[in-house]
Design brief:
Layout (H helix, E strand, L loop, with lengths): L1 E6 L20 H11 L3 H6 L6 H19 L8 E4 L3 H8 L5 H18 L4 E7 L3 H11 L2 E7 L2 E7 H13 L3 E4 L14 H10 L10 E2 L10 H10 L7 H10 L2 E6 L5 H9 L4 E4 L6 H14 L2
Parallel strand pairs: 1-2, 1-8, 2-7, 8-9
Antiparallel strand pairs: 3-5, 3-6, 4-5
Helix pairs in contact: 1-3, 1-5, 3-4, 3-5, 4-5, 5-8, 6-7, 8-9
């Protein structure tokens, strides 16, 4: 039984996302580093209306996970594993010690640029809940859109052109599904972004990677990433390939994780794990007013599950 850390993807950014680490000395290098990458104060960037655009969102999200980890790492038991959702997978490698903070933040900015450059105009993403994968895949084929992320047996993120998404939404609602538009204008994790893959792979190749201190699971196949080639492949391929998040959660559980802590903004990953594995102890740092509360909860949860 062990602790697993989760690094979130886009969607939950908000102006107060760095408040818990604003005055934390261990997090200062991360906050200063992302400010330098963005060319503006990190707190101003988090509060900007453009915080959902890739150029701000991706460095901010990596910084949020890393800043919270730096603030917590000496107080928490050593985690058994770490996984990240979309851009969170890049942050997960830095949390694991595979990648240093400056490289992670620089790669996040490059990733955003390459994705924006590859993205077609008039595209987006939406959540679809209530249908199984076979039915969703059939609807996607009809309307020329794609499954971007599999969150559960009836919970998907689909991406593509806006006209196709609108048509799919109509058919899916008629079949009893719930559709929720997302504040994302790039069809991430679909073949529409294939042009970004080799460019990001080249950027990843140029980085000095370290041996990980923690196992990292890849989003595209839920396998532990073990070597340099695997890191480059999985992090670049996921730009244009479906993320199998439900499989990642299952692998974390099957490998012994019973306590899960989501870093960064939001609670979405924590809620998904708690729903899929109600026997586990699951929280997000944003559920605590202070980081001391998160530390105390993790320590008590590990004891409760012994």
């Amino acid at each position: 039984m062990s602790l697993a850390l989760l690094c979130p993807g886009q969607g939950a950014q908000h102006p107060a996302m760095f408040d818990r680490v604003r005055d934390n000395a261990a997090a200062r290098d991360v906050l200063d580093g992302v400010g330098a990458v963005l060319g503006q104060d990190v707190f101003a960037a988090a509060g900007a209306e453009a915080r959902f655009e890739n150029a701000l969102a991706q460095p901010l999200l990596c910084a949020a996970s890393l800043a919270h980890w730096q603030a917590l790492r000496t107080e928490l038991p050593v985690p058994g594993m770490v996984a990240g959702y979309s851009i969170g997978e890049l942050a997960a490698h830095a949390v694991a010690g595979t990648l240093d903070t400056p490289s992670c933040l620089a790669l996040a900015a490059q990733r955003a640029r390459y994705m924006d450059a590859a993205s077609p105009a008039g595209a987006g993403m939406q959540a679809l809940l209530g249908l199984d994968r076979t039915r969703v895949q059939s609807l996607c084929a009809v309307h020329g859109v794609y499954i971007a992320i599999v969150n559960g047996h009836d919970h998907f993120i689909v991406g593509g052109g806006l006209a196709g998404l609108e048509a799919l939404a109509g058919d899916a609602r008629a079949a009893g599904a719930d559709i929720r538009p997302l504040p994302v204008h790039v069809p991430s994790h679909t073949p529409l972004l294939q042009a970004a893959v080799p460019r990001f792979a080249a950027a990843l190749e140029a980085v000095a990677w370290q041996q990980p201190g923690l196992p990292v699971l890849a989003g595209i196949d839920a396998r532990v990433v073990r070597d340099h080639a695997g890191k480059v492949h999985t992090l670049s391929a996921q730009l244009a390939q479906t993320i199998e998040w439900a499989q990642v959660m299952r692998q974390l559980f099957e490998r012994g994780a019973r306590v899960f802590l989501q870093l960064g903004p939001g609670t979405a990953l924590a809620r998904m794990v708690a729903s899929a594995y109600p026997c586990c102890e699951v929280r997000a740092v944003e559920e605590f007013q202070h980081l001391d509360g998160a530390v105390d909860w993790v320590q008590r949860a590990l004891v409760r599950l012994q």
